[in-house]
Fold these 2 entries.
Entry 1:
Amino acid sequence: MKNENNWLKCRDMAELVTPYLEGALPVRTRLAAWYHLRLCQACRRYVGQVRATIRFLGTGPRPRAPENENEINTLLEGSQRDP
Ligand SMILES: [Zn+2]
């Protein structure tokens, strides 16, 4: 029985952590990742670290992108006013 293709390796898991946490993986891959995490403490720990990092980066106010030309001009004028 050759089932190995369905199994993720730790190396694969490292690449999938971010999309896994973002819920961006296809269902099959997500299940495989989930299953790997059940069996692999090292990857569980790694996922925990990445999750903490994402949470850390996710906090705090993000700089908002200007929505239109007027806003961009205002920003530019503001920066020019500063010597
Ligand atoms: Zn692993």
Entry 2:
Amino acid sequence: MAQPAETVRLAEAVEGPDLGLVRDLFREYQQAIGVDLCFQGFEAELAALPGAYARPAGRLLLAWRGEALAGFMPRLDACASCGAALAEGRPVRFDPSHGGLLCVACEPLGGGGLPSLSPDTVAALLRLQRGGLAAAASEPLSPPAGRESREALTRFVEQLLGRRLASRKFLDEVGPLLAPE
Ligand SMILES: [Zn+2]
């Protein structure tokens, strides 16, 4: 088992210093993708946080390892591109560059090489987001859901950090909880 200091904890970022950390992560993300996002109102979005990410439509979750920030979670409760509701009962595409799941209208033709998540996997990841890693440990994912989750989250973290090796370390710690042997 991991030592307590290695435990990953998810906490909602609602105000003050936590939102400052979210701004730092978003700026790192912009640098990592090497695209100037000002055309999307990026600075205005940062200033207005939590803005569109506020409840009830969204949530900003920070992942902590010990007292260190590990990253933030993808959007799984609505389309990460347009905010529309997701189709129920059919696989949905996970788009790391938009930071979450896509609705049918935003999905690229033929899937665009994006990972596809089954309804079971989406439900399992939402449980994980709401209940933290304790939920994954007490209610393990099925092997297929674990595999799909791992691929989607790997691509998400790689996109976010832009550094394959650093992100692998995070996933090596989280991975066993997603797909226990
Ligand atoms: Zn959409």
